[in-house]
């Protein structure tokens, strides 16, 4: 007796995130959304071989001249992209609402148009008149910059066919929908189809396509994860609402490094690239004050100086406050424990506040020494005495540990005129060794006690114990 062909088992998919399961559930196991899991259509039969678009050739015969990167007109963006805009590349730019994504891409589009390269800007969130008003304010009006307000994928492809641009900007991919695909705009099926069609068109016509993407409340890119796999470059546009500084980070880049950061200044007049953003994170006071110390953070491959401020105040509360801004609160708690155990600085009856200047965010352990010195300075109510920069990770036994890119960090501090740098000792026998780097004295120390003694805080900071 012949065996019957087994019927395909039904599959269920979440309309919010694309998670799939073999049986129906009321709540998505990935995004935890209720009522979003529905049965999908049965898979079709296997696809047979068909005609090819272009014959395969040896890799050495593939021309590369057409894919050479060209300047976007925005130097900081070119820095992150690894040289500029690559023809045929698909770039996804994601960021929180109001961070300035549309302003940045309008600036890129206008700069590209000024080089006599035709640019098409498709907006699905605003009207054409609204974009024109912003272009008038930022000086982005040019005859080679074409603008259209569309939300239908077919209409967008029609504009591309008619204008034949060099650069295509879609603001945003979640607002475009395909008429023959089920689901609401921004849903999993719609985003996948729209993105695939735009990327396919960009590859065939050698157009650089920049897609704006929304983010969820936890900061991840909204829509299916496959969207990040389809594009060639994924950029994150970041910035605090109370600060004008904006950062562009490359999360994925097939044409360049992923450890570069671009800095921009966002104002009512538009967005401007910042080649040297260090001054934004340093206080402009004349002379040193107690409770301040400067550290050097690495944003990608770029060293940036940031000032750490600390305030220590006596309190009668049973549980003293530990408040931080711009630094990791758990690391500050660890540093306070090390100061108490190995430097005799007991702050169990004091409130401690630690913050950075200018909205800088110090991630990692390279600023541990600067935080410890600023707390000790605030406790003793004595300034460090000279322009001092401290770099190094602080261990639980009080030792200073070396951090990556120490030479670059020291060179940046010397370039900006600092006179003393406290850095970890490379070897135990090099503890206390001093050298001069571009007019700045660099002293290697092996322990936190040595660092406090070097800046004149070893005897005074422990008087509050």
TrEMBL record:
Any Pfam family: ChlI
Gene3D superfamilies listed in its UniProt record: 3.30.230.10, P-loop containing nucleotide triphosphate hydrolases
PROSITE patterns: RECA_2 (PS50162)
Source organism superkingdom: Bacteria
Keyword Repeat: no
Domain RecA family profile: 66-215
Keywords: ATP-binding, DNA damage, DNA repair, DNA-binding, Hydrolase, Metal-binding, Nucleotide-binding, Stress response, Zinc, Zinc-finger
Annotated ATP binding sites: 95-102
GO annotations of cellular component type: cytosol
Motif (RadA KNRFG motif): 252-256
Single biological process term from Gene Ontology: recombinational repair
SUPFAM superfamilies xref list: P-loop containing nucleoside triphosphate hydrolases, Ribosomal protein S5 domain 2-like
Role noted for this protein: Plays a role in repairing double-strand DNA breaks, probably involving stabilizing or processing branched DNA or blocked replication forks. DNA-dependent ATPase involved in processing of recombination intermediates, plays a role in repairing DNA breaks. Stimulates the branch migration of RecA-mediated strand transfer reactions, allowing the 3' invading strand to extend heteroduplex DNA faster. Binds ssDNA in the presence of ADP but not other nucleotides, has ATPase activity that is stimulated by ssDNA and various branched DNA structures, but inhibited by SSB. Does not have RecA's homology-searching function.
Name of the molecule in the record: DNA repair protein RadA
Gene that produces this protein: radA
